Structure prediction request, 404 residues.
Amino acid sequence: MLDQIIGKYRLTRFIGEGGMANVYEGIHVTLGTKAAIKILNPILAKNDQFRQRFQNEAAFMASLNHPNITKVFDFEEDESHLAIVMELLEGMDLNDWVKEKGAFTFQAFKPIFDQILQAFNYAHNKGILHRDIKPSNIFIDPNGEVKILDFGIAKLFGTGNEMTQTGTQMGTPAYMSPEQVRADKSIDHRSDIYSLGVTLYFALAGKSPYDTENESQFDIFNKIVYENLPELKDNDLANRIIKKTCEKDRALRFQSVEEIEYSIGSNKIVKDYSKNTYAERFSNEGYSSQSNGIQRVNSNERNTKRKRVNFGLIIFLFTVVVAIAAYLALYVSKYSPDVKETKNDSLDVVEDRATNNSEIADEPVSVPHEATADSTSQLSDEVPFEIGVENNNIITESKAEDTL
Prediction:
């Protein structure tokens, strides 16, 4: 296709090829400026779904304006070709860089990884997830500046805008998240976060965590779903970041790119969220799902609403407390004296009864003794005696004298 004119550009050099398209260097026929021309495979161009996906990529990338994301200038379409016109980059992708120069140290890779994180933080806040993050889609120029490539299978999350069906896997096997392997329908930005963790492992280890040459795709997918990534030697912070980034349960991963940035900058892992669902968390943080992605609600308006709710709740609780206190005070003042008087009356009755019993117990009682034949035989003399109560025992006076 060299020397062929596509739109306003003449193709001058072949740069590379991907799964869906080939990339050429092109020169504007009028201005003489250079650009990268990404041309959809002619066979795929006959398929309506692939044509739509290619147009989506152009639209996604054209909507993104960030220094670490490749800029799209134009889109060309004719009967036989679909092409995206992009800025021409000098340098090499991360995959070629590592193969040529070897693995990075964590310290050396931090400035590059920071640019990668900034790019995806921007894209996620725009409601766009990439779904195919891998070293070959991360370009590094001679000055160490990063550009993210290939949003070919990107999608707007939270909108139901899908170009795939449930059961269709999208992405490069070794860098796919567990939910991509399972072909889940509800894939969100945390899938990108998983792929970023695997990419970080590649950059620091100098190789993929999986043996892509000898292991089958089934074995790789099985490890992605059930096994943790291997650990790096002598790199505790990087291991902890990779481990949390690549949790199998996405609710246990970093929940945003900002959390990864914070963990690297502070040298400590942020605390886990309380397993809030993605929708709950973004609702709490002021995001709403719209037809064009996740849009941030005005923070001042949100804070004003929260203040109104909190103030109203405080007034309501104060009113309830005052009403309960007033009711208790009325109840005590109304019923407490009667109870007290009843108790006092009961105590007086008890005291009177105790006094009477004491007097009766202490008073001697005379008992007349009638002499009979039987009694004469029992007593030598007919002697009157008195009965008294002492210590709850009944005693006779004559018995007391006998005791003496």
